[in-house]
Fold this protein.
Amino acid sequence: MNVRRRLIPMVAAAAGLAALSACSTDSAAAGNTDRFDVVASFYPMAFLAEQIGGDHVHVTSLTEPGQEPHDLEISAKQTAQLQDSDAVLYLKNLQPSVDDAVAQSEIKTKIDAAALTDLEKHGNEVGGHAAEHDDHADDELAGLDPHIWLDPVRYSQVAEGVGKALEKADPDHAADYKANTAALVKKLGALNTKFETGLKNTDTKVFITTHAAFGYLAERYGLTEEAINGLDPESEPSADRVKDLEKMAKADGVTTVFYETLVSDKTAKTIASDAGLKTDVLDPIEGITAKSRGKDYFSVQEANLKALRSALGAK
């Protein structure tokens, strides 16, 4: 698979193939249900749809909690149910099987989050999992970092675009969508302020992660992400790599190696032990599980901020 996924133990996906079983079998616009049916590709998209749509939408996710979204292969049943929904909200180039299903469907409202903000290339993300899907990818998006939701400002831009799309697709409830979008954007603005204030004065600006998922967040708040993705969890890091990390850690005052909730912590702990560093979780919020440090996007981001402040020596 891709270099990032070598860090991840195989996740059983059998239950995930029925992820859309609660989705309506006909279009809400046709009067079969009382709500507007939205299929979301994975958690950050589903969260937006739920927050903006409120009681007017019925949201289902193609990716089950605990399932690694990058490796999702949707079933024929999910593809058929996608076709019967009113709208799909996805992030192009993150999940190739979703891209293919959306392209082949005749669903009227297709909302691509990648088109609602600016994407960039970040560190180890270049040549990583995004680039590895080039045979599926739009040339303009290939190799770009898809983790826009981890930056509250970019996520807010996406939220505004989703709100406008829902207003157009379901005009009967446009006023509510507009109000819900405004409320969500305000909360994201407050979160952005918390990050700005909380990370303004720190002993170091450098942090280490097992995967380069936090490029947008690092850029937003003047930090530097050092990613070590591509290391096989079954093998020990090379002596040269450990030396490089030790030198960088000492030079920049790094204290912590971060790993993800859906990723094995073996690599992080091995490197941390060899380099004399601590380990902690920095959650990319690709899904909410029992292991998540929070129940939704905002509470997990608050936990991420707390972890960063501790690791960076915030004052």
About this structure: The chain is about 40% helix and 10% strand.
